[in-house]
Amino acid sequence: MRPFRFGKMKKASEPELIQPRVAEVETELENPKLSSSLADNQTTMQTIFTNCPDFMYRELKIGQERVPVLLLYMNGLTDEQTVNGDILKSLVNIKSSNIIVSGSNTIEIIKNIFLEIGNITEITTIGEVEEAVLTGSVVLLLEGTSKALKIGTKGFDGRIVSEPATEGVVRGPREGFTESLQKNTAMLRRKIKTPNLKLEKFVLGRVTKTEVNIAYLDGTVNSKVVDEVKKRLSLIDVDSVLESAYIEEMIEDEPFSVFPQIDHSEKPDKIAAAIVQGQVAIFTDGTPFVLIVPTMMTQFLQSSEDYYDRSIYATSIRLVRFVFLTLALLLPALYIAITTFHRGLLPTSLLISITAAREGAPFPTVIEVLTMEVTFEALREAGLRLPKPVGQAVSIVGGLVIGEAAVQASMVSPVTVIIVALTGIASFGIPSYSFALAIRILRFGMIALASTLGLYGVLLGVLVMSAHLVSLRSFGVPYMAPFAPFNLKDMKDSLIRLPWWAMGDRPRLIAKNNNNRQRQKFFLKPVPPDDNEK
Amino acid sequence: MAGKKGDWMPEKGIINTKQFVWLLFIMISAFATMQLPGMLIMQAGRDAWLSILGAWLLDVMLALVYAYMGIRFPGENLVQYSITILGKYLGRLVGILFPLFFLLVCTIVLRGSAQLVNIVFLPRTPLNVILVTSYLVSALIARKGLEAIARMTELLGPLYLLSIITLSFLVLPAFHMSRLLPQFDNGVTPFLTGAPLILTNFGVCIIMAMYIPLCNRPENGFLAKFSAVSMGALVVCLVTALSVGIFGIEDAQYMSSPGIQLAKMINFSNYIERVEMIWLLFLVGSTIVASSSLIWAFGQGIAQITGLKTYKPLIYPGALISLALGILSFPSSLQHTNFYHYTFPIVAAFVEVGLELLLFAVALILHKRGTA
Amino acid sequence: MRKLVLIMVCLSIALLLTGCWDYKEVDRLATVMAIGVDRVPGSEIILLTVQIASTQGNGSNKQTGGQRGDGGPAYTVMNSEGKSLSEAIRNLGAQSTRRILISHCKLIVIGEGLAKTGIGEIVDDLKRDRQFRRTDRILTTDKTAKEILEKDIALEQVPARGLDLIMQNFETAGPVLPVNCNDFFVRLNEDPHVSSTPFAQLQDIDKEVTRQLEKAVGRPLDSEGKPKTLTIAKTAIFKDQRMVGVLNEEDTRAHRWLMDSPKGSSITLTYTPKAQPNEEKGEIQLDIIDGKTTIMPQISENGITMNIDMRAKVSLHETGSADVNVRDAQKIEQIQQQAEEAMKRQLEHTIDTAQKELKSDYVGFSENLHNSFPVDWKQVKDQWDNIFPTVNYHVSCEVEILNTSIISNPTLRSEPEE
């Protein structure tokens, strides 16, 4: 009798981006084993790496038996010192020892006795050899055996750890992630020293073979979220993954939403905090930006510094950010709606001065606001992309043009300039750039609605927007939580931030298994020593 | 992208009790604060606010029946249990009246709010434009499902309540107790006739019977309804009492929306004034969300009558029918007010009280129970 | 979802192309600050005067910084006529290049002609039009509204704003009971159908002062003649939509005591101690800081009696030249008694005026009777106009001096202390 009791809450049709391909079968077919003949293997590898001048192979004869050995590696991906010094030297040293290196166990002997390298694995297929060479390992092939040794010598120059440009802080750690995945996960490990911190490896991108790691805190994380992340990641089948944004767009819940549904950061402390409260981080090789899932909207209005400042200040700054958000979204629309539809809302003297300021203005208010907004966006974009010194010049010229000349020449009314400038300042107040982008786009929609239906139009816009927001989910967590659905306990870290000693629980909707954030008593309010006890 | 959601959602139920309360609150207060106080004052004079309290009591009693039916037929909504009780054909015949009633209420609410926007704020904009946009947004929200509507009300409900309380505080300086006195000036007749009028409006929250099966704790249905109707009664009571205390009964009874007139009275230290538009935004926002849940209930009910798998295809047609009704059946705001005042209470009393009590009685006599 | 987005986009484009029905730039609007309504007795035509805030010559390219540097008037007055108020407003369109915006209007001035012939016609329009507000203040004048609205007010650029500020000040302190449209309408609608408005006059205060000074100094004063000054110190009484009379300054004050509260007004009395008739007399001024008036009806065989009880807490503000030792409790007692008597006299005079002269219940008797004795009220309701002049009343006042401002005894003594 109840044909659709629960099903109706889901989306009518799941957006389908990619059909998963059955990859395993292909690998079986296209991944032949190594041959036991060294010459055969060498030809195969040479054919694979035709026209790759950076592909290096070096033949050696090792031991007193002069067993032929082939070293394969990519020039520039390996650490030259390790290849020359450690590997070659130890192979040459075999001769001076009196251990016999021939027969079936040669490869074990070389691996276990001679190579002074930590990271060695045995591989057996051509595909693995190919992958090992391409990811910067040295592969050692031996005559008479169908096994090869993959010697981890990855080493190329990367950026050193530096302060991230996107998330500046006054107080708090200044290190930022780099482009190297290993370095990044190591930075995370340095912060979370428990074996419960699990990292799972994925290789995405048929051509780029980008390594992707998901990191989570076992025992704290909601295992269903982890499964979901793994499932969504395993369904990705593209040729390249060059930045975490590729992944982000392919694992979002609502692909057509203007709102970002996955947060990202390049600060290890922020990622560590997210993991500790039960979120999953997705590291991508080649980019310092690490994704955090699941994400709620409040996260975009929070900065990692909120947790390092005093809670009262953090709370007030968050409230201010909320005001900024409203202003950035609605101020131009409200200005248009109020001055051209609902003059009654203005104080009389303000109305008169706005009227006086507009006297003789050539364009309608809407056009004025739109022009100024577009100019502002152009200036911002120009300042962002150009080299720094030029960018500054652009800002100065822009400021002069917008602020002074346009008003002086009676092209725009000064009030419009104030409104646009305020909007601009407000949009800079939103800590998350990607969220600010969404607000920037929606602002124009609101302007359109305001200029047709006034505040009523703005109301409709806000209603549609909030209907969309409340129906969004990020990996099963309602986007607008803890406001809708309302959760009083989770309010402690949303618009307000309670002091650390009062934040006992992890967010209810994110962490499932372990609800004690500090693994201590809930109420840790510091108590000064009682003078009477002395 | 892929990835099944829903089967492991962190929320257990579809809506929780808090959301249930706000859903009902928005439903009651949006419907009842717009035009009702004026009519009520016409009917009950100075005793209007008292008859709201009377209606509150009656409505709570009615809610008992609805909550009981929700528990007696677990997992079944209004339409479903009317089919269970009265059988396949008669049940459908009776059951279809509920969704149609919801659509009628939706028509009245949205037409009322669109009229208000049109007359007071956008006088040169055609009424139909305002109606069409309202319906479009309502239908859009309705299509997102009850969960989204519930969350909207959770955001909007507290704001609306707060806006009315703020409004009350701001107009308090203009309030004259002497205009509200004396009570029972003309005996108890005004009080007694006023109570049923407002009961029919409060009774719109029979829509709770559509929510109960989707609530994570259906046994809280009565509690939710009780808190919602208490808040709703408080809100309407405030607006009514303030209208009488400020405008006197002579003026207040002919106001098409005393609430807006109250908001126009705001003059706080000669600085915060002319802010009625802001209050109207809260009111219209609430009516739009309330009608989205009415349209949702219509779609849900009709889908169950016809045995459709999902209600979604019914949302836009439902909104369209309601829109057509709203445009065609009331040539002017006068007809709308008259219909709302004289005809609607009869229809509403029949559906809200008559039909439900009939179902209740038949269920008791035939010892019908839910199966789940 | 995509279809929906498409629909939304199409709709919004359609709206953008066809919409903006109510869109109007602010510089295409004429902001009305006050309206004045006149009527020539015997004629049907409503004569409308509107005061519009002028923004011309204040353009963005001139760096005037909010101050009007070019010296032009900050307001414009427009006139029109019509068979009704709304028609007259529509007729303004014939001369105004800008749409008339009334929602900022805070003041409605009613000319004497209209007030005496009946304001019924304009009341409906004031209630019905969405742009008028019930918080607008209402003002009656003994001249025409046109004269009032064309009058400059010292210190204010826009006179309407000045008038509004005067009335705002009355809200906290002052002799006149400020009335907004809402109170005015509601009182006219409620049972005795009596209401009041402040009453504006044009007075030649400047000439009067000059004349008296000239008399004193015995030569023409070296001052330029100034135009008449607008003053609001009286109250107009309306009954059944017609102005029936004007209360003078003293009655105006007592009217406020009865209808609102004594708070904020002041009384001046001549100090005449009974015990020591030789002591010097002087004008004593008392500021009423706090107070309350209650009117308690009482019904007996003799008919209806109104017990008016007024309590005022005052601050001694001026003793004039009176050599009065206010630190003496007895003296304070005397002053209090005198003040009580003065207030009582004043109230009685005002009530007598209401009962005998104007025959209108503007003193709030019926309201209190209705609230206290709803059943009895119903019987007298229809003949209230006849009964009201015969209603007995009893006034009792109580004055309490709370403080003597920042000094106690007057230090200006007529003779040096021994």
Structure description:
- The complex is a heterotrimer of chains A (534), B (372) and C (418).
- By secondary structure, chain A is an alpha+beta fold.
- In chain A, 43% of the residues lie in helices and 11% in strands.
- In chain A, the strands form 3 sheets. Chain A has a 5-stranded antiparallel β-sheet, with helices on both faces. A 5-stranded antiparallel β-sheet of chain A has the order 6-7-9-10-8, sandwiched between helices.
- Chain A starts with 22 loop residues before the first helix and ends in a 56-residue tail after the last strand.
- Chain B has one domain (17-364): Amino acid/polyamine transporter I (Up-down Bundle), CATH 1.20.1740.10.
- Helix content of chain B is 76%, strand content 1%.
- Chain B is globular and about 60 Å long.
- Chain C contains 13 helices and 13 strands.
- In chain C, the strands form 2 sheets. In chain C, strands 1, 2, 3, 4, 5, 6, 7, 8 and 9 form a 9-stranded mixed β-sheet that branches. Chain C has a 4-stranded mixed β-sheet with strand order 10-11-12-13, with helices on both faces.
- Classes of the chains: A alpha+beta (534), B mainly alpha (372), C alpha/beta (418).
- Chains A and B meet through helix 7, helix 16 and strand 12 of A and helix 4, helix 7, helix 8 and helix 14 of B.
Number of strands of chain A: 12
Number of strand elements of chain C:
13
In DSSP terms, counting alpha (H) and pi (I) runs of 4 or more, how many helices of chain A?
16
**Pair of chains with the largest interface and how many residues each contributes:** A-B, 61 and 60 residues
The percent range for strand residues of chain C is 25-35%
Low-confidence stretches of chain C: 58-69
Strand order of the largest sheet of chain A: 1-2-4-5-3
Q: Rounded to an integer, what's the Rg of chain A over CA atoms? A: 30 Å
Shape of chain C: globular
Separation of the first and last Cα atoms of chain A: 74 Å
What is the helix/strand order of chain A? HHEEHHEHEEHEEHHEHEEHHHHHHHEE
* Straight-line N-to-C gap of chain C: 100 Å
Task: Jot down its keywords.
heterotrimer; B: 372 residues; mainly alpha; Amino acid/polyamine transporter I; two-stranded antiparallel ribbon; disordered N terminus; C: 418 residues; alpha/beta; GMP Synthetase, Chain A, domain 3; 2 domains; 9-stranded mixed beta sheet; 4-stranded mixed beta sheet; 13 helices; 34% helix; globular
